[in-house]
Amino acid sequence: MWCPSADGIMGAPYRIPVNLQSGPQPLRIAIASDHAAFTLKDALSAALAEWGHDVVDLGPYDEERVDYPDFGYKLAGAVAGGAVERGVALCGSGIGISIAVNREPACRCALVSDPYSATLAREHNDANVIAMGARLIGIDQAKACLQAFLAGEFAGGRHGPRVAKLSNPTL
Fold first, then answer.
1. What are the boundaries of each domain within the chain?
2. How far apart are CA 103 and CA 105, in angstroms?
3. Among this protein's residues, is 107 annotated catalytic?
4. pTM assigned to the model
5. Whole-number Å distance between alpha carbons of 48 and 171
6. CATH homologous superfamily of domain 25-157?
7. Using CA atoms, how far apart are residues 139 and 40, in angstroms rounded to an integer?
8. 91 catalytically annotated
9. Which of 17, 39, 59, 170 is the most exposed place for a label (fewest CB within 10 A)?
10. Helix (H/G/I), strand (E/B), else coil: 92
11. pLDDT digit string (tens) for 20-58?
């Protein structure tokens, strides 16, 4: 899998460090969506289970209209409470549910649309939740993003103090 480098589209290609099976080790992962992302949620849940992860489906369980904040908050609670190690948040655009998840200071939810941004979300921001928009991303691209997110590791170093500030805002 190849993406533009951090230097921009004209830079050298960047090789995304992705274990194409399941990532480094099986994790307990919660997944939640709204009605617009129900089909994507089911597809990603199946992929996570196939890759050996323990999937906690927080709903919804059909395509009836629901409010994304309710499911974003439920997902944030599972991550913050330690019931799961990672989360996957999905809605039509990914924007609304990512805002809801990020209301919880223990969550660092990154809205991504490509594997490179998913990798950077882990490496630079220690993201513990990934968000995607079902109306903006296909199933295969979403799976590639999820694989990159799960394979990524926090780099620490200069990023550590910045990430600490995310959970302890001084407004």
1. 25-157
2. 6
3. no
4. 0.85
5. 37
6. Sugar-phosphate isomerase, RpiB/LacA/LacB (3.40.1400.10)
7. 6
8. yes
9. 170
10. coil
11. 444 458 999 999 999 999 999 999 999 999 999 999 999
